[in-house]
Amino acid sequence: MNLGLGLGLGSIAVHQRPATVRANLDNLSHELIIPIQLLQVEERVAQGTIVKALSHPWEAVFEQIKTNSNLLYQFSKFPREFEEFIAASYERQGFKVLLTPRSGDGGVDLIAEKSGIGTLRILDQCKAFSKGNRVGLNDARAMMGTFKRLTDFNNTPTRAILTTTSTFAPTAKTEWKDYIPTQLELREHDDLIKWLSRS
C-alpha cells in the first residue's frame, strides 16, 4: 500500500526506528510526515485487501502524533492514508484487517475481526477532517444504516465505529445515544489518541 511521500520539510525513511524519528522531529516542520509505506498486502479478496502493518513506519507516524496531537488534522489532506493508518492500528492490536477499495466500499473503509471466545467483527468508517470540521448526523445515520443492513447477512458485524481526526456534532451523539457504545462507537480526536496508544 503506497502512501504519499514525506510531507513537510524533511522525510523519514521507512526503516528508521521510532527513537531515531523522535530525535529528528525537532528539526522538521510542523507538518505530518508519512512514510512511503505503512501496510503490507497479505491477500487480495473480492471485498478488498487483507493487510498487515509495517511496524517501524506505523511507529514513526504515531511518534509524531504523540508529540503533537494536532498533526492528526493533517490527514484531512490525505484521507486514504488515514484509512491505511487506522487499518494498520487495528492489525497491531491483533485484528485481521480487510481494507476496502477507495471507491464502492459500501460505506465501510475497513473490517477488523478478532477471534476469541466469540468473534469480534468491527465495521469502521474513517473521517479525516480538519480541526473544527465536525462529523455530522448524516454520517452517523449512514454508518448505522450500513451496520443494520449487514446484520442480515452471514458474518454479522458486532459493532460499527466512526473514527475521525476531528469531533462529532452533538446531534450525532444524541440521536444514537441508545446504541452507543454497544452497537455504535464514535471515536473522535482525543479518544483516537488513547486508542492508538494501545496499538
TrEMBL record:
GO annotation, biological process: DNA restriction-modification system
Taxonomic superkingdom: Bacteria
InterPro entries in UniProt: Restrct_endonuc-II-like, Restrct_endonuc_IV_Mrr, tRNA_endonuc-like_dom_sf, Type_IV_Methyl-Rstrct_Enzyme
Pfam families with a match to the protein in the record: Mrr_cat
Keyword set, alphabetical order: Endonuclease, Hydrolase, Nuclease
Protein's UniProt keywords contain Cytoplasm: no
GO molecular function terms noted in the UniProt entry: DNA binding; restriction endodeoxyribonuclease activity
Claim: Glycosyltransferase is one of the keywords in the record: no
Chain ranges of the Restriction endonuclease type IV Mrr domain: 79-196
PANTHER family with a match to the protein in the record: MRR RESTRICTION SYSTEM PROTEIN (PTHR30015), TYPE IV METHYL-DIRECTED RESTRICTION ENZYME ECOKMRR (PTHR30015:SF7)
Stated name of the protein: Restriction endonuclease
